[in-house]
Design goal:
It is a single chain. By secondary structure, the protein is mostly beta strands. It has a single domain, classed as Lipocalin (Beta Barrel). The protein is 0% helix and 70% strand. It has no helices and ten strands. Strands 6-5-4-3-2-1-10-9-8-7 form a ten-stranded antiparallel β-sheet, with no helix packed on it. A hairpin with a 2-residue loop joins strand 8 and strand 9. The two termini are 20 Å apart.
């Protein structure tokens, strides 16, 4: 994997009542990649419309966990570990939310120039179940071409 990567993140939220009206939220951006002590790190900046500054995102991948840290306009440290519930405060310009992430699966597949990540989790806000969610990520070397979201 090269230092310069393209990152695609697609997320779905399934609310209990209206699962038919689900549209994914997808972000495609350039980022930086490095590997240290057996862990993959992807760094990229995110701009929020209507706010000055940006949010720095740090994604850390191990064999069985996904760790996302956001610093800037929004601040949060989210940890996705299979069959483990993690709680954190999500600080936004509109206020703080107590979120719970109960990961049901964390699947990471790696080749020389590509990393695929699939996470399924339950999302809670203030100890109330909000939605069943999934995240699909594809990280690849910039030179390698098309995305393969599946």
């Amino acid at each position: 994997m090269t230092k310069d990567v393209l990152l695609s993140i697609s997320g779905l939220q399934f609310a209990a009542q209206d699962e038919e009206d689900v549209e994914p939220v997808e972000v495609i951006t350039a980022g930086d990649y490095y590997k240290k002590n057996g862990k993959h790190y992807i760094l990229y900046d995110e701009v929020m419309e209507g706010f000055d500054g940006n949010t720095r995102n740090i994604i850390k991948l191990t064999d069985d966990s996904l760790d996302i840290t956001k610093k800037g306009v929004s601040n949060v440290h989210m940890v996705f570990e299979k069959n483990k519930k993690n709680v954190s405060y999500y600080n936004t310009p509109f206020g703080s939310l107590l979120i719970g992430i109960d990961a049901k699966s964390v699947d990471i597949a790696e080749t020389e120039d590509n990393i695929d990540v699939k996470v399924k989790y339950n999302l809670e806000v203030n100890y109330e179940h909000l939605a069943d969610c999934s995240i699909i990520m594809n990280i690849k070397s910039k030179e390698s071409g098309e995305f393969t979201l599946s």
